[in-house]
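Because discrete structure vocabularies remain unfamiliar, we turn briefly to a single example record, giving the amino acid sequence and backbone structure tokens:
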Amino acid sequence: MFSERFIRYIKFEKRYSKHTVSAYQSDLDQFFSFLNNPHKQIPAPEAVITHPSQITHYHIRNWMVELMNEHIIARSINRKIATLRKYFKFLLQEGVITINPASKITAPKIPKNLPVIVEDVKLIQMLDENEVFSKDFKGLRDKLIIEMLFGTGMRLSELVGVKDADINVYEDTVKVLGKRNKERIIPINKELKLLLVEYQELKKKQDFFSNNSSALIVTDKGANAYAKLIYLTVQKYLSYISTQNKKSPHVLRHTFATSLLNKGADLNAIKELLGHANLSATQIYTHNSVERLKSIYKQAHPKA
């Protein structure tokens, strides 16, 4: 039902990332599968749906109820609804439909969860003492992974995509390709710069590497690093300083932003460093800072 045309549109014209395109395709496939199962719709459809113009807001609402019954979280449902909104908006622009059935849909509210962070003092201590990292190439690479994520706030997918050529040791910057292929330049601190130089020099000396990867982060055999490698590396080292359940690379991104905010950085500057499209996405870190102020107040004020 014109889904292939829509996918080509977001892939080639909008230039969405392959992960975003894959998510949109999956959401549409799930929705169409639901439409083709009359037993899941109330009331049952009078005819088989073969064209998008036959889809109404009742079909979308029924699908939302089905997702809720399957205990899909509100955030995931909202993403699927956003996919349908964009899909039907595209069909409207193309003249395939005359009414957007998603326009009458209200997405479920998402409970606000504060970003999970680790104590930056403990993190810095672990990195400075350098006792948990082995003295070989693997240990240096693992330390660089932690330093890059905490020192720049970049996403896991962005770190995977960083190449050696993206590091500018003369300008003390790293070039990052973010969401929707949007480039941004992030400054690096002096210690991270020295670590990068040391790591890149050691990487050149690894005679047993089977290829010459242009990627900054590589595996033990010299191949391009993959997301799970970085995820497991972060999980391993955060377990030394944190007992919380969540120990993902995104925790280091949250810690980066919260640390900057706590030390007086401008919210708009943090937005640019993180590569957020809207300031509203960055404002969630202010809640962590408020909670920190409350904690300090309760500990320090005589009447608290």
